[in-house]
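Predict the structure of Glucose dehydrogenase [FAD, quinone].
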Amino acid sequence: MSAINTFVAMWRFLLTLGPSAMVILLLNKGILDQRPDIVDEPHRVRSIHIEDLRDVYDFVVIGGGSAGCVLASRLSENPEWSVLLLEAGGDEPLLIDLPQLYPVFQRSPWDWKYLTEPSDRYCLAMEDQRCFWPRGKVLGGCSSINAMMYIRGNRRDYDHWSGLGNPGWEYGNILHYFRKAEDMRVPGYEHNPYHGHGGPISVERYRFPSPLLNIFMRAAHHLGLVHRDGDFNGHSQTGFAPPHGTLRDGLRCSANKGYLRRSWQRPNLDIVLKAFAERLIIDPQSRRAQGVIFEHGLLKHQALARREVILAAGALASPQLLMVSGVGPREQLEPLGIPVIQHLPGVGGNLQDHISTSGAIYTIQSGLNRPLSFIVPEMMNEEAVEEFLERRESFFYAMPVSEVMGFVSTKYQDPRLDWPDVQLFMGSYGYGADGGMVGRRGAAITLENYADTFEPVLYQDSFVIAPLVMRPRSRGYLQIKSADAKVHPLIHANYYDDPHDMAVMVEGLKMAHRLTQTPVMQSLNATMNIYEWRNCPEVEYLSDAFWECLARFYSQTIYHPVGTCKMAPASDPAGVVDPRLRVRGIRNLRVIDASIMPTIPTGNTNAPTLMVAERGADMIKEDWRHYRDGGWG
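Done. Here is the predicted structure for Glucose dehydrogenase [FAD, quinone].
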């Protein structure tokens, strides 16, 4: 029976692909013809001609993602400094601006397409039992392909960083950088001390909510869980509210749009797109970073730095580039024939991510003539294209994956601390809502599993509540398998290595289920998709063992890997950079991106990455005013 279901699912998937592709083509052409605000031709970043590369720059920034865009923009504010930004991808395509289409760019040419190593403890429903890890291969990096949720984390996260021996990273000091990056446009926040105005990244509410948003909030209210002021980035974090997003006029505001489009024409800033960094140039005698070897147009080039080389390639590529350049664990480098310039055992370790369980699908019956949730084939049509192009509204502005967000403390966390250990996404569609075209493909769920568990609820009115473990105790690591930077490293995610993480996840799933038992949800006959029980028929339905089964089968990254170039004091042997983000033992080399985070923040990681880059840019400015002779202090 399973084989027949799989065959049917595959053919239905192929048959629905054609009409959706036609809508995408209509949308793209319509934007070119009718939406100059999205085309934004005068401000689009243009790469320099490679023959115009300067002999030497003051600063070479590797990686044009969230952090790299900030660094290139901020460092080039000094007209006396020359700055080069190298980005392996190209400019953002037009459709990337549309919030609803963000999953389309996973497993696309704008994605690095990383995969974790197979496991028998998580991602069991996924192809080859591997978790798929999208990473942005485009100017703006992950800020260009993410779900745009603007969450800063918890003040205790940053006080904890400082307490680990990283002075200056406490919340009272870094709040300034969150505010500096922000242009808060949500009404009612004009004089809020936690928010900034006029910064590069605009913050708004998501447009085009479904009717479920109010129902989700009523369920949270019944349990006494509504956030007191609706702002996760303000005085407190605990509770449920619609999240804010990095949006400008309802469309994506990536780091590229926010930072680079207003600075790339400066005469002291050069940008090379489609430039793949292969290796850092580090003098083995002086241990000084001198530049980078990169590939562009099938040819090798080098870019030299007079002052600093700055790695901003992200939590996977930054440690890999360090290792292939001779900086990292000796036991990984020597077997691959990489000369060890600096033995740093912490490079590639301390890997953390927010694991979620995305399979908790609930069907509902509204009794109305229209669904309450988003059924993609009914929404993604020519009428929606017309509404988007002509009236600047429609489904393409929506963010169904998390119309309401919640932060809660389980029984393992003291609620008085206001430091929640679970985040929940309440989404207005499930895996059956799009026929598997995007959701199934993005999560890499096998056709067989999809046919068995989600095909029976295909296109039914439904929603999902996905919990995330906020501060996992488990730690993973990266392992390079080649001296060639083009060969992806092995990613040992090690989700649920520490049993505490699974215990927290089970409590998160039980909290999600309690929300579905509230009167407003029961009036809609909210019912768990019982077909998911087929994964573990031997366990009791809705028992802790059932929730654990769900977590192990439908494990999904929320795209937040951090920690692989850990910031730490000299006393910590696992540290890679010091509190001023300088690589240990190597002069004139810094890492400034999510990889430096010693522990993962409580919430989405893009806003914290922007903060790290803003603070890193200020550190560089401070250091080079003080050390004018080019010394490292």
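The first helix runs from residue 2 to 34.
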